[in-house]
Design goal:
Four copies of one chain form a homotetramer. By secondary structure, the first copy, chain A, is α+β, with helices and mostly antiparallel strands. Chain A folds into three domains: about 120 residues, Orthogonal Bundle (Butyryl-Coa Dehydrogenase, subunit A, domain 1); about 120 residues, Beta Barrel (Butyryl-CoA Dehydrogenase, subunit A, domain 2), CATH 2.40.110.10; about 170 residues, Butyryl-CoA Dehydrogenase, subunit A, domain 3, CATH 1.20.140.10. Helices cover about 45% and strands about 10% of the residues of chain A. Chain A is built from twelve helices and eight strands. In chain A, the strands form two sheets. Chain A has a four-stranded mixed β-sheet, with helices on one face. Chain A has a four-stranded antiparallel β-sheet with strand order 2-3-7-6, covered by helices on one side. The mean pLDDT of chain A is about 95. The interface between C and D is large, with 61 and 61 residues.
């Protein structure tokens, strides 16, 4: 009751168990995956780690108990994610994306859809169930709520009522988990599709569940500079047919996108914090042993000492902001649109610079691939760019809320509800040339 | 139990009552004080406001119930301070300094000292009791823990055992509240003095309580660019005699300084947040009405919308970091040395830039004195510089803790105790020239 | 020939003569003006300084020799402006605004207009000739090139052909110099007016010269937080009649605005650099004498030493960027649209933070009004906000150029010409809501 | 005469010829080298490129004509380096290090030494002459001027007078070029050695030229995250014997280090600018073609347009600051100690963030290895860390100069000389714990 920052015994247990898993199981696999030149091989190399995580319930921990999930709060999920990301942020992205694919069923799906698909995930005994989230396209996704049907999402789903199916044509670029362990597809992919070719993004979009091995879909893996432990693909649809009962959020695909990227925002934010913390832990140790050729450890120099206090301060500030956003979403059914956007842009952008500051502490040796700074530096570039890029998508979502009459600077601090409406969409999609 | 950001009903009541007081009572007085050219007149003009605040118990709200105070937690004190500072940060500095003068009695005083002096404050019925905190000196205070007795604090207190008194000679520069409403002195001033002329700052310093109207003390008011609602003075001691029972923390004046500036750090931090929030509230309203000569409010432009989301994000991040620091201190008897230092340097430095960002939203009209941006901008410069300046003192305290073997990056997030020891002092006092 | 940063003997003479004037003549007057509560009194107090400057030819130094001016290059004008601004940036704004009022005659005026009005300025023997530049309006000016005639500039000038006059109605807010020494008007004001009530800002605007003592105009002085040595007013037109031969740039008022704020951009930029340099000079001296209670000057601490090197580096970088922009404009008839915008946004925003960094070096004493930091801090807030605010106007101008096909990253470094066209205008004036 | 930013026809020719070489010859080789997992193979793959560069005189262009070099000014060398670095900064580092090894002969060597060793470099007809610069050690080098002989440089050179040789024992870590194309050593390595085991770094150090194939030296290549086109090694000395006539700067090895890192500072700075410019060119093109799923290129969005203007502004500002530093050094025999340090810390730190800003423009596709952003991002991390790391070494050098009484804020702008003395060394080497 009231403001409280003290972890419960259970939360501490979650934290330290996850840390042990991250250090003992995840670290060696992630380092190998990172060095693996073939991106699909890198992803596949994580399968044993994933199976162990699944055995601990990690891959469905955020799904509600009602459907067999772990029932973790957003705050608790963040605690686990930070620990994983302090070692490797690519692997927990697999978990996060399971959520991006399945959480929308809670918010927009029918009970049958929930039971079937969430049920499958939580019933997984092999420990390899994957759900993919397919929204991004090659031409870009930031303007998904553009009023023109020729802008934004271009993967079409035409209703073939005669056969009770939707026929999908087009391409997704960057969807995560979607290719599955063997490039035959994730067990299920939640795809944002244009179900109305005549309507703009606020009404023409829907979501649809596409099962593994659906004919007419090809996957090609993208070779990324970081987060190599997870898989991103180009996914091409050539008249792929999907049962009509797999459709959800008809005409509300825009809301699926916004709500998903709100839910994931504090997760991506704490992931950025986790990577920065990993770099900070290394830099702090380094500063207490390395002397820079002097007569005592470099932390004893004011420039190093001060920089480390700034690094630590930013990580602390970032973390509690993430917790706040997660806590707010715990209260309001995973909603917290502007707060999530603020959280992600703040943490994603700041933590990249924190990691570079850690490299400045370490000095030239940070460039040596035998030390982990190379990897932290690359991983840290991801957070501002993925999961709804900060420059456009995340800031736009916060902007749309803040521009609304209903918004008050007290909303979040007072934990008051804030309804996200379609009128808050579409900010910045029309270019500004007079 | 567990991480929680929801204000209790009582906390919300505190927040909104304080806000009402700030808007209705404080605002008009503070604006007049700010415009008043004579600094002592500016301070005196706040007396009626202070009396009203005292009637509400505000001036001793942070003192323990045991001694007649309000028993507010640090978190609750922060809630009130933010509201006051969103209107004017000078006035709540008077309250804060009452704490800097009296809280050390809890930590270092005898029971008699506590009962007498805290008792006087809480028994005040006129509503004008002031306690001053006198540590800074003209030559600077950052190096108070320097190993040389000729460095750091130079106000001497020589023990005249024959008369059971200490004889004080020297000067304090910048002490707050110390001159009192009439320049005859605050009701009591807690002064850091050098009781051992042969020892460095880690062992040669003590604290002593100096009563109002003690002969041999002069006060001259400093004319400041901001925080004009509170009083800072030069305080000169010419053989002022103080009863020996007023001494506390003998040989531990250094610890008094560190503990005090730890306790006040989140308060100064939330004050910075409060000022930034005041500026943000104005800028947000402005952006929803002002069009910049265009055809709709400027918030509809992406540059303005995005900047406002960044402003809001920084304020949110800053606030919860302050709450965390205060909560930690609530758990550990007001201790939290590195965390406080991190909190203040992070918020103090960041919020100055946030206020300037708010001015960028408002544009050239921010320069017009009829709008409040002029004042917010000046007030915002204070936080990095006062209450143990960030560049040296606050960073040094965090640095000393972090350089210690006992420090772990998990300490604060896990709410684990961290003992501050004299070995953590003295960082950066020896200059680095080889 | 070729890249050269060495000042000629003449340039050094200009620099050090201006410095002497700034220190001996300007400083005492500017300090008094800054402290003067009445803004018009503050401005009037600068008249003797202005007269001395005029006797040295300073007030028309930038006008071409052909018309009796000093013929100073932009680079040389910058050298002088930096020296003045290191002491006080308000006063040189008076000079700058003379240019904003008269330089457009060179670019857009007829020979008669040039001879008459520039001639008057350069023939001034009393040393009090003032020219005002009136573009800003109360509702904002950033969107002056908006396609709607109801947006942007709303001061109308209706052509009364029968009497050979334009009739002006409306208001300007923030024009500088415009009220003149006695609130009867500057000797001449160059006003941007809407001459076509049916056209948007790209074609509906013109410029017109309004002589002192023109009936139907009122002036009210704005009370600013900084730059108090110059005058900004609200200027109200009630059917003021102006001879039609005073019109220039008919239908091209937009280009007058853009070209003017291009020309002034490096001047405003070097002004920001000058203020920062003034603060830096004070902080550097302070750091070499003040000990912060330690045993040697604070510059011997690494945190202070490093911060000072960063301050100095930013000032050096800023200055040469200004020189580059001025040099480019010297080559291309005062044009250099994107480069000017980049220069001003870079320097204006950065130098505000540099001044605050200087305050961090000085510490709490920076808050004492007896030291100059208070003034530097307030002055430094102006540059991002005035003279076409950075957030919108200056960035928009650079943006429009960069978005054009003709723009190359080599343009400026190669000193190649770049034609500014109306197609580069209008960026960002339509708000982005879909 | 006087301030001039216009490139001569010759300078433009140098720029565009170098650009053509960089795009046509360097680019394909550098991309392959970057992808090559074995670092020595990566380096060797650059040999044909180096030979072509040598044929154009590039590898000795900065050496004086008197000794057969190209006689390029520092400014001209910078023009070439920027062009190379816009494509790949690893390769030009090879050229730069030739200078770090041979330029000290001009400043500290005898005429015989100059003729012999510079002569060899310039007489090279095979086009593969390499000179290495070996200063850094595993324990760190930042405190090379520490007063203790057990701190700083630990590679010892004991004088065996009987045989007219110095005997070298110890290790260098990170020297560049030093292993040569075949790990038998660069043609010559200039090594900083401790010739006096009893003296601190200000007097105990010297420089010595070590010829290729000297027995008793082993090389191991460091696997770096960036700048893979150049070679850094660990170089171990087991009683390697060097003729005594190869010694220079006896007792002044500290000055060799400082002067070298002053000379290279603007080169490293323009390299950072070059990398940022390469990223900016890509991002600018991207912004004019990619739509982000909207209806026009993303540069038409204000957030993107504004960010690009900021990116361009920082690159412009950085470049002219580099030119200034180089020009100053051209005037003063390659000296300009504080200015070089300021230049490198400013550009190195800023350009890393500029490259990340370019990635923010590009968005998630910046993570795709098929685009060049991955490489730019990694390369950009190097400049703050190598060539005397900014946090300590470069800032220390500027600090020591600025703390000196002789320093004036006018020194550099006025192109006045500034003598660097040993009294300016040693700042920050003694840690600050009291």
């Amino acid at each position: 009751m009231g403001v409280d920052f003290e972890l419960t015994a259970e939360q501490k247990k979650l934290k330290y168990q996850t840390r042990e898993f991250a250090r003992e199981v995840l670290r060696p696999a992630a380092e190998m995956a990172d060095a693996q030149p073939d991106p699909q091989e890198a992803f596949r190399a994580m399968k044993p780690v994933y199976e162990q995580a699944a055995a601990m319930g990690m891959h469905t921990m955020f799904l509600p108990k009602e459907y067999g999930g772990g029932g973790a709060t957003n705050v608790n999920f963040l605690i686990a994610i930070e620990e994983l990301c302090a070692i490797d942020p690519g692997f927990p992205t697999i978990l996060l994306v399971n959520g991006l694919a399945l959480m929308p069923l809670l918010w927009f799906g029918t009970d049958q859809q929930r039971e079937k698909w969430i049920g499958r995930a939580t019933a997984d005994t092999r420990g390899d169930f994957l759900a993919g989230w397919a929204v991004s396209e090659r031409g870009g996704t930031a303007n998904f709520d553009h009023p023109s049907p020729r802008a934004g999402i271009q993967l079409t789903a035409d209703h073939d009522r005669s056969r009770g199916q939707y026929v999908l044509n087009g391409e997704k670029h960057w969807p995560c988990n979607s290719g599955g362990w063997d490039l035959r597809g994730a067990d299920v992919n939640l795809c944002i599709v244009r179900t109305d070719r005549a309507q703009g993004g606020k009404t023409g979009l829907s979501a649809i569940l596409v099962e593994r091995d659906t004919p007419g879909i090809e996957y090609e893996v993208i070779d990324k500079m970081a987060h190599r432990a997870c898989q991103n693909v180009t996914m091409t649809f050539h008249g792929a047919r999907v049962p009509e009962e797999n459709l959800l959020a008809e005409g509300d695909g825009d809301l699926v996108i916004n709500r998903n990227f709100t839910w994931s925002a504090p997760i991506a934010s704490i992931a950025a914090v986790g990577v920065a913390r990993g770099a900070y832990e290394f830099a702090l140790k380094w500063s207490k042993t390395y002397t820079g050729g002097g007569s005592s450890p470099i932390i004893n120099h004011q420039a190093v000492g001060n920089l480390l206090t700034e690094i630590a301060a930013k990580i602390e500030a970032g973390r509690y902001f993430c917790w706040k956003a997660a806590h707010y979403m715990d209260k309001f059914g995973d909603q917290g649109h502007a707060l999530g956007g603020m959280n992600k842009t703040f943490c994603g952008d700041l933590m990249q610079s924190v990691v570079f500051d850690c490299m400045r502490v370490v000095g030239v040796n940070a460039l040596d691939r035998k030390f982990p700074m190379d990897k932290f530096y690359r991983e840290a570039a991801v957070f501002s760019l993925y999961d709804a890029g900060n420059l456009a998508m995340q800031r736009r979502r916060a902007w749309g809320v803040m521009a609304d009459r209903s918004f008050s600077p007290d909303t979040f601090v007072d934990s008051e509800p804030l309804e996200f409406t379609k009128s808050m969409e579409g900010y910045g999609v029309i270019t500004e040339i007079g």
